[in-house]
From TrEMBL:
The chain crosses the membrane at residues 65-87, 99-119, 126-147, 153-177. Residues 1-14 have a biased composition (Basic and acidic residues). Keywords: Membrane, Transmembrane, Transmembrane helix. This is Uncharacterized protein. Residues 1-21 are annotated as: Disordered.
Length: 189
């Protein structure tokens, strides 16, 4: 067999590949177009809607490191708020400051609000920026304040230092995940 005898088969194979790959042109063989269309039925509208919802939910999930950092920071904030609410007098004695229940209550409520914001970033990507803008400065401020407490109240110093480190981790993980999320779009250009 000569090389020219295989050309029609090669063209047919290339045409089949093009049509099945979605690159077929209107000049393609009508039987081939009909067969390809029959092999790829249009999905029911309910199924297409379900797939779209699943893809949307997946697209709004935060990166795992962001979620872990946000949940850990939320837990640290809840521990601090719980300590302020339940052991405020004991903490004030160990820090050497007067007990102020009103200020401790308001501080605990604000810390719980920050914990909710951090936890929201663990659930949805859209809340990541808000959590970084609100929780990171609070965590860093508490972390810097905690360094001075090591000689007075080690438990508080450790908690505040952990909060500061988690705030930095949340900021870094969020920034990294945003850069990684845009990287494929930059590479595609």
């Amino acid at each position: 067999m000569s090389e020219h005898e295989h050309e029609p088969e090669a063209r047919t194979e290339a045409g089949i590949d093009a049509v099945l790959g979605g690159r077929g042109d209107p000049a393609s063989d009508s039987v081939l177009l009909w067969l390809a269309g029959a092999a790829r039925p249009t999905p029911p509208a309910r199924l297409a809607a379900r797939v779209d919802r699943a893809m949307t939910r997946h697209a709004d999930r935060p990166h795992r490191l962001v979620a872990v950092a946000a949940l850990a920071l939320a837990a640290a904030f809840v521990v601090q708020a719980g300590g302020s609410l339940m052991a405020g007098d004991w903490i004030a004695r160990h820090v050497g400051e007067p007990f102020a229940p009103h200020a401790l209550l308001e501080g605990a409520l604000a810390t719980i609000a920050a914990a909710v914001c951090a936890a929201a970033a663990a659930m949805r990507r859209a809340w990541g920026g808000v959590a970084v803008l609100t929780c990171t400065p609070l965590a860093l401020g508490l972390g810097l304040h905690g360094v001075g407490e090591f000689s007075e109240f080690a438990a508080g110093a450790v908690l505040h230092t952990v909060e500061g480190a988690l705030g930095l981790l949340l900021l870094g993980a969020w920034w990294w995940s945003r850069r990684e999320g845009r990287a494929p779009a930059r590479r595609a250009r």
